[in-house]
Every structure is written in structure tokens, then in C-alpha cells.
Design brief:
Length: 152
């Protein structure tokens, strides 16, 4: 779990960005005054405890977007997934044209959104410094790394 990345999420306006290795999802639910569970969860850590705990704290019909790649197998209570009608969706790469067009429209329509998204970029390097960029990204201590192809 990366505290700097969780802090980036908080700065962007997330109600709670939770480090599941330190706090339970159920605690966050109580903190937010929720009684029936979360409608949507985004699992970005790859932590093996995050998904099962998220499943335990979703409302009926809840949805999970899986963006983090787990480093080991994750045990899932499939009876809970089925009986609570939960949807798990793996997301990897991009659905190029649809998501880019939607995001472009959103970014054009909101200066606040543009500023928040821009704040996730913590490093900008010339394309010739790609090795350094990959090292920074691998360290997982910051946000997004942008390689500038106009500065080669």
C-alpha cells in the first residue's frame, strides 16, 4: 500500500482513501454513516485482503472495479458474490476510443476536474529519461509519470 498515493486520492477529493493493511473497510463504512454497504468499490492496491473485505462490505447489487494486479491468488466467497448479486469487473488497459472520448469531454467541461487529474502527475521527464521514469513508477511512491516526447 502506498501512503503517498492514498494522499493523492484524498487531495483529489476522495471521501476516504483506505489503507486496508492498517484499517478495516467496515470502520470506514461506520465513519461515513453507512448502514447498507458501499454501492461501488475500486480495488487498486492488489492487496490480497482488499477484495474479500470489499465484498463483505458491499450492498446488494454492488459493483467492484478491479484495477490493481494481485501479487498472489485471492480467495473469494463466491456464495456471497452470487447471493448478493455483486458484479466484479477487471479493468486493464484502455477501451481506447470510448473512454478517451468520454474523458476528453469531461476534462473540457470542468476546470476543477482538470486540476484534480493534473495533480496526480508527480513527475514529468523528457522521453530520453524513460529509464528514470520507469524506476520512479516502479517505486510506487508518487503518482503518474509523464514522458514528454517534445523533449527528447
Amino acid at each position: 500500500m502506498s501512503e503517498p498515493r492514498l494522499e493523492l486520492a484524498r487531495k483529489m477529493g476522495a471521501d476516504i482513501a483506505l489503507n486496508v493493511s492498517k484499517r478495516r473497510i467496515a470502520e470506514a463504512q461506520v465513519e461515513l454513516g453507512m448502514r447498507e454497504g458501499f454501492d461501488v468499490g475500486f480495488e487498486m492496491s492488489g492487496n490480497k485482503n482488499a477484495l474479500p473485505e470489499m465484498i463483505d462490505n458491499l450492498t446488494h447489487g454492488g459493483r467492484v472495479a478491479m484495477l490493481g494486479l494481485p501479487s498472489e491468488s485471492i480467495e473469494i466467497d463466491w456464495s456471497k458474490v452470487v447471493t448478493h448479486m455483486l458484479t466484479l469487473k477487471g479493468i486493464y488497459g484502455r477501451e481506447m476510443f470510448e473512454t478517451w472520448a468520454a474523458m476528453s469531454s469531461m476534462l473540457k467541461s470542468s476546470e476543477i476536474l482538470r486540476n484534480r487529474i493534473s495533480s496526480t502527475i508527480t513527475d514529468r521527464l523528457p522521453a530520453s529519461s524513460w529509464r528514470e521514469g520507469f524506476e520512479i513508477a516502479r517505486a510506487a511512491t508518487g503518482g503518474k509519470v509523464v514522458l514528454d516526447w517534445t523533449r527528447i
